[in-house]
Amino acid sequence: MATTLPLTDVSPARPDEAGACCSPLVREAADPETAVELARVFKALGDPTRVRLLSVIAAHEGGEACVCDLTEPVGLSQPTVSHHLRLLVDAGLLAREQRGKWAYYSVVPGALDRLGALLTGAAG
Amino acid sequence: MATTLPLTDVSPARPDEAGACCSPLVREAADPETAVELARVFKALGDPTRVRLLSVIAAHEGGEACVCDLTEPVGLSQPTVSHHLRLLVDAGLLAREQRGKWAYYSVVPGALDRLGALLTGAAG
């Protein structure tokens, strides 16, 4: 996805003479498709209720909690909580498992670390 | 900030008898104020252009780039790019330093790791 536009064509006034500007790229940045995907995941976390839910689940033993334990900490109805949880599952941050009548949610191990790595190229 | 509502008051049908539900809290979840703050930072990243900008900066040598190097990768005007960069600075993800006529942006070391730690309690 690399553009073929030479950098020198777009920034003729760049202060090359200063020496400090224009440090070279040392790795590849996230491509536009990856950026869209990452932004989608971060957007799922851009809501205080969802941050609280993920945090409460992570604070439970084993990083897992029953939906029945999640309504009280956020003070919302179970349908509303389930809606928020679904967005976190869709974003790949939580896993959902149905056991009998209850749904259990667990934090996907390493999901947040992977986000950071994709973003800053630490894994690339 | 702990509520005094006994858990048993809000979820009378919880499947205690199954043994698997209602795992205990093993650490404190992010409190509501922290959740609001974290959500604000994640929201700043909930935009593909800002993800690209952060990623491009991180891909530069030393994790730092001149604003003059950032317009071309995202294909936007410098005022628009500066606006997005300001939001990332406000969120604590980037640091900005003016040198002569150019502004340089660098990734705040550990900012993303700290987010994850605050969220999942790994640092708490």
TrEMBL record, chains A, B:
This is Putative transcriptional regulator, ArsR family protein. The keyword Signal does not apply. PANTHER family: ARSENICAL RESISTANCE OPERON REPRESSOR (PTHR33154:SF18), TRANSCRIPTIONAL REGULATOR, ARSR FAMILY (PTHR33154). SUPFAM superfamilies: Winged helix' DNA-binding domain. Keywords: DNA-binding, Transcription, Transcription regulation. GO terms for molecular function: DNA binding; DNA-binding transcription factor activity. It comes from the Bacteria. Residues 30-124 form the HTH arsR-type domain.
